[in-house]
Amino acid sequence: MAAAKLQVPRGTFDVLPPDGERRRALDAAAAEILGRAGYAAVETPVFEDTALFARGVGESTDIVQKEMFTFEDKGGRSLTLRPEATAGVCRAYVEHGMHKLAQPVKLWCSGPFFRHEAPQAGRYRQFAQIDAEALGSDDPALDAELILLLAELLEGHGVAARLRLSSLGDAETRRGYGDELRAFLREQESRLSVEVRGRLEQNPLRAFDSDHPGTRAVMAGAPRLIDRLEPEDAAHFADVRALLDEAGCEYEVDSGLVRGLDYYTRTVFEFESPALGAQSGVGGGGRYDGLVETLGGPPTPGVGWAAGVERILLAGGATAAGAAPSLAYVAVAKPERARQAFAIARTLRRAGVRTELEQAGRSMKGQMKHADRLGADWVVIVGDELELKDMAGGDQRVVGERDLVEAVSR
Ligand code: ATP
Ligand code: MG
Fold first, then answer.
1. Disulfide: which of 15, 239, 300, 400 matches 292 by Cβ 3.0-4.6 Å?
2. Best substitution site from 114, 263, 268, 310 to test ligand 1's pocket, by max atoms within 8 Å of Cβ?
3. Sign of torsion, CA 365 390 18 345?
4. What is the pLDDT of residues 298-328, one digit of tens each?
5. 0.85 cut: is pTM over it?
């Protein structure tokens, strides 16, 4: 009886060639762009104490209420597969006393994240994010810098994204505004969706996120947080905008922009690509001046973003790959020459030459065909003599083993 076939778990996927290379190239581009701006690479665990996300992401968020992969380990501890990066990075900042370093501390990371969502194109249960954070300064230049760095990364990958930008003010402004909005929504409660009504107490701002027609009609006339900012927060937002304007970065101020996390203060932003349909968000973030303190650290401002790797690659389509470096193919003319061929391939590779080796017992004719299929520029034929064939010109000549590296490096 044949064994039953196994499949990847729902909402996950295998990365196959050539996508593996595209994902690595995106990661390399992020390392390059962020590294140039002083962001250093960090890694935090893929699972953390559940309490970190409950506190750090916020009890009223979709993520904490519905989307976390939470489990108990053998010691009875509640752990959660990380649904986002900021909470873990902030925990690490506190745990390692990074507030004692020169500020701001600029960090970036990338890797897998987990959310229990209904899978569809661009929405998975395991997905990858690139994440950048700047901790320890409330300089609006950090908000603008981070937005521009993400714009650069997206642009470099052919993602034409619309930037929505807003400011949420500080926690107190948000609270006061929340009360005002709640009172406004209560007056028209019957027109609101059940979900929005259910969230009215905890987080009335989420009503801006609703697709429900009745709710949307009500929200069109709702008071706007952006009109309620304290002078300092309004000035901070004006500074962020001025820096983006000077950089020629286009954006749209959208007071209805609600980010899915509770911890944001002041600047919030989101890049959206029309190429993605319903899952339009490619990346977003904002300022979280209260988060580190919430996690038990000293009062520490911070700002950051996360961008979805799968959505960037979906929205960017096939970006032109750079010309691949030339390829040598080491053919084995006689079985007894296989070891020599193996050594030659190793020598070429160590000298920096991209090299394929015959490893499937093909005939000489089969090997030449295979070399052609691989797009080899050179074939090194290892027989009683060593011969080098130039695949473009067709020229074939005897060559000394010592001259080989130089010959194929041309
Ligand atoms: P959405 O509104 O689509 O649910 P979100 O606001 O929950 O997105 P963020 O928490 O801001 O997303 O995460 C940053 C980025 O991570 C998103 O812009 C998106 O590109 C990506 N992302 C989020 N959730 C998923 C997922 N389930 N699958 C794939 N990518 C995701
Ligand atoms: Mg989401």
1. 300
2. 310
3. positive
4. 999 999 999 999 999 999 976 656 678 899 9
5. yes
Q: Which of 293, 269, 295 minimizes the C-alpha distance to 282? A: 269
> How many CA atoms, within 13 angstroms, populate the side-chain half-sphere of residue 128?
19
> 310: Cβ below 6 Å to ligand 1?
yes
In 47-75, which positions are buried (b, 16+ CB within 10 angstroms) versus exposed (e)? bbebebbbbbbbeebbbbeebbeeeeeee
For residue 224, the 8-state DSSP code is -
What are the two backbone dihedrals, phi and then psi, of residue 196, each rounded to the nearest 5 degrees?
-65, -40
> In a mutational test of the pocket of ligand 1, which residue from 65, 257, 267, 311 has the highest number of ligand atoms less than 8 Å from its CB?
311
Query: CA 157, 81, 70 angle in degrees (round to 5)?
Result: 140
Backbone angles phi, psi at 47, to 5 degrees: -125, 150
Ligand nearest to the CA of 115: 1
Average pLDDT over residues 95-104: 97
* Per-residue pLDDT reduced to its tens digit, 157-189: 999 999 999 999 988 888 899 899 999 999 999
| Ligand 1 site, residue 91, Cβ cutoff 6 A | no
Q: Looking at residue 74, what is its pLDDT?
A: 97
**Residue 270 alpha carbon, nearest atom of ligand 1:** 18
Residue type, 31: A
| 189: enclosing H helix or E strand | none
SS (H, E, C) 56-87: HHCCCCHHHHHHCCEEECCCCCEEEECCCCHH
Does ligand 1 come within 6 angstroms of the Cβ of 67? no
Q: What are the start-end ranges of the H helices in 251-296? A: 291-294
pLDDT score for 150:
98
Return the residue whose CA atom lies nearest to atom 29 of ligand 1: 123
Q: If you measure from the C-alpha of residue 260 to the centroid of ligand 2, how many angstroms do you get, rounded to a whole number?
A: 7
30: left (phi over 0), alpha (psi -120 to 50) or beta: alpha
Tell me the per-residue pLDDT of 209-248, one tens digit each, with 9 for 90 and over.
Answer: 888 999 999 999 999 999 999 999 999 999 999 999 999 9
Instruction: Give me ligand 2 centre to Cα 123, in Å.
Output: 8
Smallest CA-to-CA distance from 287 within 407, 122, 406, 137 is with 137
Q: Nearest C-alpha to atom 13 of ligand 1 is from which residue?
A: 306
